[in-house]
Amino acid sequence: MRLTYFANACCLMEAQGFRILTDPWLTDGAFEGSWCHYPPLKVRPRDLADVDALYISHIHPDHCDPTTLSAFPREIPILVLDHPPNFLHRVLRGMGFSNLIAVRDGAQALLGPFEVTLYAPFTTHVFHDSALGNLIDSSALFAHGGFSVMNFNDNTPDLAAARRLRARHGPPTVAQIAYNAAGPYPSCFDNLAPSQKETMAERVLERNFDHAAALARILEPAWHMPFAGAFVLGGAQWRKNFCLGTTSADVAAAGLRKRNPDIPVLLLNEGQTVDLASGQREGAYQPADRLAELRHIETVLAARPYPHEADQAPDPEHLIGLCESARQQLWSKQQAYDCRPKLGVAIAVGEGWYRFDLSSPEGAYCAAPPPEPRIAIRMDPRLLNRILMGTAHWNNAEGGCHIDFVREPDVYVRDFHTLMSFFAADVAVRAQVTQAVSHKVAS
Q1: pLDDT tens column, 192-213
Q2: Residues 315 and 187 in one domain
Q3: 255: number of CA atoms within 13 Å, CB side?
Q4: Is the N or the C terminus of the chain less surrounded, counting Cβ atoms within 10 Å?
Q5: Residue 212 burial (CB < 10 Å; 0-12/13-18/19+)?
Q6: What is the sign, positive or negative, of the torsion defined by CA atoms of 303, 306, 307, 312?
Q7: How far apart are CA 167 and CA 49, in angstroms?
Q8: Rounded to an integer, what distance in angstroms lies between the CA atom of residue 152 and that of residue 320?
């Protein structure tokens, strides 16, 4: 059994000539345009389009990238978790993929020579209380010939889940464990001073290293591979690279070795392969060049345009009407999930704010944000228009660091971020807006 690494959570499992590619994101511009690879990738989507099968863990675009997936045949077998609400199934079928192999939580599937066991989210959240928690992620254990790779990607288990996995499967040959905290905190939270953002980014990483090391001590893999969440920001948000809750695999490896000196850390550059039976790898690992990365971000990636920047600025009254529809759509989901946290939300629109409280259905346009506890939100109005019209997604805009927040008090309400994924106008309202804009252009 061989493992070849490409980028982020994309790697190739190979046994007896059968090849499974995981989470192929190989093009820049994920998360509404901002996520990019560094170093720039040499491999192209079409270079890997002849693999035998795919495993896609969830719908985030650094795992399920429409641009990369356009290179793959529509009939390719795709291994996916079968666990409601199954957003990923609808997305892939909407792209035209017809051969989804859906596997229930904890069940096994035979794919070529591989035994693959899929797992649903292990916990609502590893570090924070949450009523809704993780609705989309999955993990996969790939096993063949006495060797195995435990691919956690973004579905980080708690310690109890790690003990259950260890008891069921024994120690994996490779444990691919996330160490980054990809998302808007702390870089997008303007209630924090720049020095506070840097401090909090370091604290988040140290917390993640502690947890990843604790998981490895339980699982006892032959190799611990720092995995997933590797990116840099391009475009207008590029300065936020300096206070992301992320770092390179090199830095993660140093932190993990310090905590677990007896568990080898596996680091691979793009295209490098390790044979799990012999332990032999192709090529020597080249550490990251931080100065070269910063130069590339500032001189090349900073100039990247975002898709929404080509749009015309929307009228504030138009956005307010869409926000009112989106609030009702969100409230419907809150009732379905029985989740109504007490938190005031204010979205900057024009000279004022579209306001609502997550504990009640009403919304209104006002001159000032709501009283505390509250979270105030700003973004490019062209991106807000795309989110409300369903051509962009709130969660992707957050992950891409396009949204700026001020929360008072500075308390993390995890369910707010999950719920806002459903903040988009009703389909009928979107159609009316599209028709009205078409008539206006025609006249």
Answers
A1: 999 999 999 999 999 999 999 9
A2: no
A3: 24
A4: C
A5: buried
A6: negative
A7: 36
A8: 40
pLDDT in tens, 165-187: 999 999 999 999 999 988 899 99
Q: Is 140 helix (H, G, I), strand (E, B) or coil?
A: strand
Q: How far apart are CA 24 and CA 69, in angstroms?
A: 7
Residue 319 and residue 196 share a domain: no
* Phi and psi based region of residue 233 (left: phi greater than 0; alpha: psi -120 to 50; beta: remaining): beta
pTM (2 d.p.)? 0.95
Half-sphere exposure of 214 (CA within 13 A, CB side): 15
Please state the φ and ψ torsions of residue 363, each to the nearest 5 degrees: -140, 155
Residue 441, pLDDT score: 41
Taking alpha carbons only, the member of 180, 211, 231, 215 closest to residue 65 is 231
- Best CA proximity match to 216, nearest among 229, 226, 230, 201: 226
Q: Is the pLDDT of residue 356 over 60?
A: yes
CA angle 211, 177, 40 (to 5 degrees): 125
State the total domains in the chain. Answer: 2
Whether 196 and 216 map to the same domain: the answer is yes
Rounded Cα–Cα distance for residues 68 and 54 (Å): 12
Residues spanned by the domain of 407:
308-442
Q: Residue 233 phi/psi, 5° resolution?
A: -90, 130
CA 278 – CA 263 distance, rounded (Å): 17
The answer to whether residues 264 and 384 belong to one domain is no
DSSP 292-306: HHHHHHHHTGGGPPP
What pLDDT is attached to residue 443? 45
CATH number at residue 368: 3.30.1050
Q: Which tokens go with 290?
A: 């931080």
